[in-house]
Amino acid sequence: MSIAIKDAKIPGRSGRFDILLDGGKIDRISGKEDGDEVIQADGKYLLPGFVNTHTHAAMSLFRGYADDMPLQQWLEDHIWPLESKLTKEDVYWGTKLACLEMIKTGTVAFNDMYFFMESAADAVEEMGMKAVLSYGFIDLGDEEKRKAEIKKTKKFVDYVASSELIKPALGPHAIYTVSEEGLRWCAEFSHKRELPVHLHLAETEDEIKEFKRQNTGYDHITEYLDEVGLLSNNLLAAHCVWLDEEDIVNLSDKGVVVSHNPVSNMKLGVGKPMDYGSMYSAGVRVTLGTDGCASNNNLDMLETAKIAALQQKISGDPTLLSAEDGYSMITEIGARALKTGGGSITEGMAADIILLDKGIKGVPGHNPVSDLIYSLQGSDVTHVFINGSMVMKDRYVRDEDEIVREATARAMNLVKGV
Amino acid sequence: MSIAIKDAKIPGRSGRFDILLDGGKIDRISGKEDGDEVIQADGKYLLPGFVNTHTHAAMSLFRGYADDMPLQQWLEDHIWPLESKLTKEDVYWGTKLACLEMIKTGTVAFNDMYFFMESAADAVEEMGMKAVLSYGFIDLGDEEKRKAEIKKTKKFVDYVASSELIKPALGPHAIYTVSEEGLRWCAEFSHKRELPVHLHLAETEDEIKEFKRQNTGYDHITEYLDEVGLLSNNLLAAHCVWLDEEDIVNLSDKGVVVSHNPVSNMKLGVGKPMDYGSMYSAGVRVTLGTDGCASNNNLDMLETAKIAALQQKISGDPTLLSAEDGYSMITEIGARALKTGGGSITEGMAADIILLDKGIKGVPGHNPVSDLIYSLQGSDVTHVFINGSMVMKDRYVRDEDEIVREATARAMNLVKGV
């Protein structure tokens, strides 16, 4: 079924456009033909949907449960006790809740790592989103646990093999939670099956200090990643706050994608802004992520882009991470990183696009890209199309009420008696 | 006319409440009687409206006109050339646009400093908001200019003398733009007429360096403020980023109110986070402001509170500026600072209140105050009452379309040929 979107403005281009979506692609721009369905944009902004390159979707169940405390206390006293009680049904409904929020705020694709990933995959498929999903592989140096994690990882990869919307990835959780053998297995399996790898890297200073204490042979954590076979253009590394200049050059040389998570980093107090300036100069591909809702506490990519820009500027250079940079990071660069096939308003690209009503916060409208990043918010999104299917129309998403009801009930049940 | 709001949730209290607004006040809480008009809240959050303690409302006309550049270039090449062309009609429509955005995002009262303030006052009155307004007094050390500024200030104070919604304030722009004589006149006039004072203070490191170069007799900028008679509980000082520990003690001793503007500070690259930790420990009254839309670029107080919290935590202490702190700053502390008569949901307080639909971003709802500050946004506000009058109902504000049309036309005309 084809959809014609009439009379839309495209940020950065002048005039108004009619766009035909057909066969999952942007078929024509400014062809005047009608589609099977016609959406009157009436001057709304039409742009690529947003791409969130690091989250733990099901953690939306924990939103607001624990805030404003040190990272270890947050994890040990609050998050881990809840996670130990999670069932696959919780993950299913938590992921649905996250997908609902992402769609409502204009996100079309995301990169996720968590547990019970078959249930997460079911939820994503049903919501019609694109995702790269990985089972969070944690062996803590234990061989038995490693074998079990390998089995779970393989099972999940097979489970989503035939999906059009979902791509499996390897999810070694972090260098401090996965043994060298575990990391090597992930690297080899990734190579053999041509799968991307999703890893937490250098989120805190403690991670780097502890790595150096335990691995005295390495001056830089990225040398270790290279040694175990993970440092490649298949790798997406989340956080990367505590990398040094040489690490950054290594990321650039190997084509690693960075997922910067400014809100989560600040909220958990990781200690300093990520060094975007050096990454930009070195040509590293930097994308943006929200992290899970327990440390953000929403999934709004426009808010994330604004805060990313503000975080860079605080130290005194207001030219760092411009509105245009933020816009590229959450659209084109993110889409390329996750290989969604979308990310720009170009004929032949995947029709992963959104309409956005600039409302009052976009008035007077001197610069739509500036308005998008610095003033508008996810709630200004009105329509979302993924692979040419309309998953949100006039701010309405199918089954909203059921998702809210079920997710709320499961969340309240989880915290009972913790 | 009385209004009954039925079946509302109040963050921090359990159960649901019926609230009667009458005579501009919160008349009863949980009286079951109906009012002349009944609003079914259906479980929406009811809370005090937000208070924005530092902005330049009419600068909404410049939103998105110049971003991502050093402060001096931004001012000299972009903002000042536009401001030199401003007419009173521009300020009228720019202020209306700002009021419209503030109402839409739940703000009931604000503190403003700009030019053509009679026109700003007309706009605020017509929109039904509360405001403390000050004419921006700038003499640049010139006696003739000072006399003219005194005249303009007196004229404006008289103009709004009979207003119920607007209070006049003195607006000495900053220590670096107003002579000692000008500052002393403001202090004396403020004392004589019992008017608050609104001042920019210590926004940049250069301001402090230049002050010390020119005033070698003072070790601290607040000693100079005290000497000219301005350091009192009548003073609201915006920014205060580059104050030292002794300055902070002085603010506390004299009961000065600080307006912290985290988004503007970061966007303009003032160089470091404001020292909220020391201010909090010293007992300084810290409120939140957005600054003008040219350096933010919106007027959303929930976004401002989230970013204030994140800014404090970045250096490594996630306990600084909690959700509860942020919530108090934009409600109770702000309302007391501007003496609005509102700021809490208590019988007898001014009925400056809002209803807010938690939508998807407030699910599951473990902690409504956390959800408000960290997840929800101004766009989630559905109803706004100021002195018991309903200025927004179901997200609709009177004359929206006219304001957008007129403000856009004026903004586009201003930038033409600059």
Question: Short description, anyone?
Answer:
The structure is a homodimer of 418-residue chains. By secondary structure, chain A is α/β, with parallel strands linked by helices. Chain A has helices spanning 71-83, 88-104, 117-127, 143-159, 180-193, 205-214, 221-227, 245-254, 262-267, 276-282, 301-313, 323-338, 368-374, 400-415; strands at residues 3-8, 17-22, 25-29, 37-40, 45-48, 50-55, 107-114, 130-137, 166-172, 197-201, 235-239, 257-260, 285-288, 353-356, 381-386, 389-392.
Structural account:
The structure is a homodimer of 418-residue chains. Chain A has 418 residues and is an alpha/beta fold. Chain A is 39% helix and 21% strand. Chain A folds into 2 domains: 3-48 and 350-400, Urease, subunit C, domain 1; 51-338, Alpha-Beta Barrel (TIM Barrel). Chain A contains 14 helices and 16 strands. In chain A, the strands form 4 sheets. In chain A, strands 3-2-1-4 form a 4-stranded mixed sheet, with no helix packed on it. A 4-stranded antiparallel sheet of chain A has the order 5-14-15-16, with no helix packed on it. In chain A, helix 8 links the parallel strand 11 (235-239) and strand 12. In chain A, helix 11 crosses helix 12. The radius of gyration of chain A is 21 Å and the shape is globular. The N and C termini of chain A lie far apart (49 Å). At the A-B interface, helix 2, helix 9, helix 11, helix 13 and helix 14 of A face helix 2, helix 9, helix 11, helix 13 and helix 14 of B.
